[in-house]
Amino acid sequence: MITHLRLKAYGKINLGLDVLGRREDGYHEVRMIMQTVRLHDSIDLYRTREPGIRLETNLYYLPTNEQNLAYRAAKLLMDEFGIREGVSMHLRKFIPVSAGMAGGSTDAASVLFGVNKMFGLGLGVRALMERGVTLGADIPYCLMRGTALSEGIGEKLTALPPVPQCQVLIAKPGISVSTKVVYEALDAMELKPEQHPDIDGMIRAIREKDLHRVAGKFGNVLELVTAGRYPVIGQIEQAMLECGAENAMMSGSGPTVFGLFTNPRAAEAAYEALRFGKYAKLAKQVYLTGFYNVKRD
Ligand code: ATP
């Protein structure tokens, strides 16, 4: 009997993000190139005799009830399968919150995976994805991981070959952005065709394993909104480029910015400059990480 599982819930960045339109039900049709990074939250899952779900986190401002996606993920499976025992979860957050890195979604994906395993529910990854998408559009991808094209509202996933390994510098400015507000502002804009990123070109560059061209194809339609409102996003990108990044861009609805580096020394120097040096005022959280390409199947 499994009584304890330690799960790593990895964050993601978007190498490309296009929004095709808004559906009747309010969801947006997207085309996104998703990439898992090694930066992860850690979740300890304990099986308890006492029924119910308990959640603790290291961040005082995060909810620990049904408003937390990790809690909802556990509840979804425990209700459906009538599990009489309980679970206790200890969530340690390292992925920046409200940052465009799918932190909540990846916690939920890991809890679905963990509860399924702990109680021997016998669900495959596909079955977990079908349940996960009812909690959040990015959860199916977080169950899958690696490099992928995400379409529909996020439930249509196509695995892509891994992007060549490099250094990924992540910097989150000290501002909070509401995903909902960003999408609403985008809906009110009339985009010209050239404002949409070349997702197909990005896919070709990934298939050809050409990191330089992948970086050249960066594009995120939500940057038009978020970077328009917060100049610090463009300033962080500029700082990363000056430090030798192949390219730099905002992830998701922001405000996190990431840069890809092929020179480890330049990446280290950029990390230092953003963390402690001349660009330290721009970013509140800075991480130097890399791609994570181990898929769950
Ligand atoms: P996305 O990239 O999917 O847009 P995000 O990075 O913008 O996600 P999250 O960090 O996933 O945003 O979560 C943002 C909001 O969700 C916060 O207001 C937070 O209170 C709530 N939330 C619920 N559960 C979690 C969780 N497990 N981790 C982080 N935030 C959570």
Automatic annotation (TrEMBL):
ATP binds at residues 96-106. GO terms for molecular function: 4-(cytidine 5'-diphospho)-2-C-methyl-D-erythritol kinase activity; ATP binding. Residues 202-275 form the GHMP kinase C-terminal domain. Pathway: Isoprenoid biosynthesis; isopentenyl diphosphate biosynthesis via DXP pathway; isopentenyl diphosphate from 1-deoxy-D-xylulose 5-phosphate: step 3/6. The keyword Kinase applies. Belongs to the GHMP kinase family. IspE subfamily. It comes from Enterocloster lavalensis. It comes from the Bacteria. One of its GO terms (biological process) is isopentenyl diphosphate biosynthetic process, methylerythritol 4-phosphate pathway. Residues 68-146 form the GHMP kinase N-terminal domain. This is 4-diphosphocytidyl-2-C-methyl-D-erythritol kinase. Keywords: ATP-binding, Isoprene biosynthesis, Kinase, Nucleotide-binding, Transferase.
